[in-house]
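Session log. Operator J.P. requested a structure for one protein chain; no other inputs attached. Running the standard single-chain path with token output.
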Amino acid sequence: MRFLSICWAMAGAASGSAPSDYSTWAATAGAEVVATYDPSTGRFGAPGDWQAANSAEAVAKLARQNASLIPLIRDAFEKTVASRPVKQATPDNWGQGHDDVMWGAFAWLRAYEVDPQMKYVQRAAVYHDWIHTNELAWAREKKDTCTYGLNTTSAPISGIHSGPIWTDSIDKNTICNTQWLQLSLRLHPFAKSLGKPTDYYLTLAQDAWRWLEHSNLRNSSGLWSDGVGDSCVNTHDVTFTYNQGVVLPALALMAQETRNASVLALATGTVDAVIKYLSYGGTVLHEPERTNNGTESEGCDQFWGGPCRRWAMFKGIFVRFLADFVEELPAAAAKVGGQPIWAAKRTRYLEFLKTSATSAWTHGKCPQDLGFSYDWSGTRKDFKLSCDPNDQWTNLPSSTSAALDLFNAVAQLTDPPIGQQSTL
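Structure written below.
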């Protein structure tokens, strides 16, 4: 109960400066997410899966505004890494896929931002090494596909598979490869401390980007499809919001490392496409609805069956990384030039986050303090079901965690960090 009591004092406990509405809204959603924490396992929400990892990252990001959450993050880390291994699962039992474990890596790197202990970075590097080893196994067994004739300088040589070789899943999708790109770039500054050659992670990131460029996963609309099919061609299937988000901070970091303005322009083109095709009137984010951008074969209610509320976490991932991208834009612009252009983009994207957040707070709250709906506009016909904890497709911990990501995103860009100096 010690950890659960933290959440109720979050709104203004860390600083004498008054929090903005966005920080206050984040504290409210954060209280709901913290209440899902299981002290016996160190997991939030649904235990042991990728959504729990994303909730952990959302709480870690909230700790930028409230250092009293740091003990909870430490507890989550220690109990997660101490969990008993499960056969044919990722390190720390995040699931079975490469994407599952990379969400865990992002959670620990976010924890490092508020509690700078190398154990978090080291654990993220363990996950990275595990995936790298799996990709070498794919190449060794000569089961690799979709190489596009690339002569890369390092393994993985041809894009990241969705899972280890024992899953026999030959799929290569956008999310795993953009996660790998971002994770490699975020580990790059720590290469020496992790016992790697200076350019080890950067080289992997550059190879990952080469594969993504050759995959043609980015449509003419500017949006990224979900993956490539057996023929190694873009399937033009659903353009989930998280596929648009993970790549953004990676490209900002790539621009800083390479001084390449084109990757920054590609990133802003993706955000512009999201605002055009995946929002209500350019103000409130939503998942793809059928073929509204003219380049995909299915909407969020057709992918793997089930309604759109099944994918409640995805928009939270997008806004989380959009905020990181906006935060990195000034540094990237300083390296590539053209600051006025990027400054105008930054202003536009922040306004989009604000209008989405205001709508989610005003129209997206579930009755009876049940958390937040996946529908930030309050207009979708399944809004009531999305607040029903007994509905088979509703995951209120995930949709509330996504709302926390949204409120965190605006607070990150508008409120200075408070309470960063822990007295623990």
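Operator note: The CA atoms of residues 130 and 188 lie 17 Å apart.
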